[in-house]
User: Which sequence fits this backbone?
């Protein structure tokens, strides 16, 4: 496939020399949802699908971008000096945003480049195809221009591009998982301090299965920002009495003792989710380390219930997939993953039950929703890096 991408690159941009290749994965979060921007813990891992980039530095200041996923859009050309957001540039605003943030940091990028993108993450599925493009762009810039930026800073710049250039107020989970991912490991990340540890994804005789609702998220981004504001309001109410800087600072006991400070009932529900989900995530990682996969699965189920009833970000499609998964024999745990409102679920399924799971859950799902689900067996891959192009 890489050779095919290289020949596509040459066909579009000409020349054979000095072409480099890069890869950034997608991500799936195993537990710890809507906790990152609340200063809590998350437990995501990198996927083996992702974004491939073929690129070459230019002598002038032109930047030419092409994606084989959006052939109809063709080559987009901009100048290093004109990197303003442009709606017409569609997908290319992601790499442009990262480039702009890198330059704003004072990193020396004096030359342009030609770049081809190809992604095999299902689009709009909540597996972070956008963060994947951002990190692929970051490692490309870092290598082409010999910038010497640490991965954790590339993660922060990519998040900044998403927040400030694209205008989505996401937390740091996606970019972190994609930048720092490690084969067969998930990352327990404290989003407040950015302290992290890798934990092997060892599931015994079971495997991770992603199910895609194939429901486009639509209004999700505005709802996402609404949830953030609700949590911010809850925090402000708690801060009238407590010296905390995020909801992630609270234990369950402290929350229960002080929750009446939160005036609005909806805000209180959101905060309850954030606090309990943070505890659940830490406990889930302990269970996994002890080889207690059942315990881990049970916490995944509780996570979904909380996202459904307290945080209210699931919706008919995600609930249909998860609830039918819960009814299947051999399912150890199942929950929505990512922002919600559509996108994907992640389940731990015993190897011997996977085939039946896909058939039965797929059938029930289309009966309940009229939509067709897609299923993928997860293999946990590495974070973003240059790859060899022989
Ligand atoms: C999206 C955001 C992340 C995180 C999740 C919810 O994926 O990009 O930062 O908030 O939603 O856990």
Assistant:
């Amino acid at each position: 496939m890489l050779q095919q991408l290289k020949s596509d690159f040459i066909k579009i941009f000409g020349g054979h020399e000095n072409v480099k290749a890069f890869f950034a994965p997608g991500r799936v979060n195993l537990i710890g949802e809507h906790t990152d921007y609340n200063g809590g813990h998350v437990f995501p891992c990198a996927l083996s699908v992702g974004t491939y980039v073929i690129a070459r530095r230019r002598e002038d200041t032109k930047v030419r971008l092409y994606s084989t996923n959006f052939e109809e859009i063709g080559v987009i050309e901009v100048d290093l000096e004109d990197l303003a957001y442009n709606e017409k540039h569609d997908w290319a605003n992601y790499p442009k945003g990262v480039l702009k943030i890198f330059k704003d940091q004072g990193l020396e990028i004096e030359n342009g480049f030609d770049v081809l993108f190809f992604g095999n993450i299902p689009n709009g599925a909540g597996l972070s195809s956008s963060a994947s493009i951002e990190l692929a762009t970051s490692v490309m810039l870092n290598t082409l221009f010999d910038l010497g930026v640490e991965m954790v800073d590339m993660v922060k710049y990519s998040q900044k591009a998403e927040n400030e250039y694209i205008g989505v107020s996401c937390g740091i989970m996606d970019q972190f998982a994609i930048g720092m991912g490690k084969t067969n490991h998930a990352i327990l990340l404290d989003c407040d301090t950015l302290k992290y540890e890798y934990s092997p994804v060892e599931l015994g005789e079971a495997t991770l299965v992603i199910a895609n609702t194939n429901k486009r998220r639509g209004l999700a981004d505005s709802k996402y920002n609404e949830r953030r504001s609700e949590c911010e309001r809850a925090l402000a109410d708690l801060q009238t009495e407590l010296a905390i800087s995020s909801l992630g600072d609270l234990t369950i006991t402290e929350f229960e003792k002080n929750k009446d400070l939160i005036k609005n009932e909806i805000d209180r529900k959101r905060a309850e989710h954030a606090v309990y989900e943070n505890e659940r995530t830490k406990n889930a990682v302990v269970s996994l380390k002890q080889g207690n996969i059942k315990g881990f699965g049970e916490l995944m189920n509780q996570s979904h219930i909380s996202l459904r009833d307290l945080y209210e970000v699931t919706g008919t499609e995600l609930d249909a997939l998860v609830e039918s998964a819960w009814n299947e024999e051999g399912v150890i745990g199942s929950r929505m993953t990512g922002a919600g409102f559509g996108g994907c679920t992640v389940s731990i399924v015993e190897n011997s039950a996977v085939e039946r799971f896909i058939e039965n859950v797929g059938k029930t799902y289309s009966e309940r929703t009229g939509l067709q689900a897609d299923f993928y067996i997860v293999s946990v891959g590495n974070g973003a890096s240059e790859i060899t192009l022989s």
